[in-house]
Specification:
The protein is an alpha/beta fold. It has helices spanning 13-23, 61-72, 85-94, and strands at residues 5-10, 27-34, 37-43, 52-57, 78-81, 104-106, 109-115, 121-126.
């Protein structure tokens, strides 16, 4: 058994696709219209092509409440790993990404949190 998909709630799939591909550098993998929404996944060019991030619409009322609560409480919805967090931080900051601080070492891990423009906080970390 392996993890193949992980869903990330987003408030706007088109905006999310633009951010995750044009700003973060992910690659669109699957894009299938399903009624008013899409089955939309992206993959990391640095990661396994077998692992897809689903840009899941937060259309369900409970999903909106959950997403907002995490954001308001400063809890990242997911985490991405970087091999050079300082270089990644500088590159993304130049692209307009809003960070909630600077990379900070906490024990053996360096991390920073940023906003994805779609209602989520994302943690970036380096071990």
């Amino acid at each position: 058994m392996k993890v193949a998909l992980s869903s990330l709630l987003v408030d706007d799939q088109a905006k999310a696709l633009k951010f995750y591909t044009e700003v973060l550098g992910f690659v669109k993998h699957v894009d299938i219209p399903i009624g008013e929404f899409r089955w939309l996944t992206v993959v990391s060019p640095e990661g396994s092509p077998d692992f897809q991030l689903v840009l899941e619409p937060n259309a369900h009322p409970a999903a909106k409440v959950y997403q907002k609560a995490l954001f308001d409480d400063g809890i990242p919805a997911t985490a991405f790993q970087s091999s050079d967090i300082h270089k990644e931080y500088e590159k993304l900051a130049q692209r307009g990404v809003v960070f909630r601080g600077k990379p900070t070492q906490q024990g053996p891990v360096t991390l920073v949190v940023f906003e994805d423009t779609c209602g989520n906080l994302i943690q970036l970390f380096q071990t």
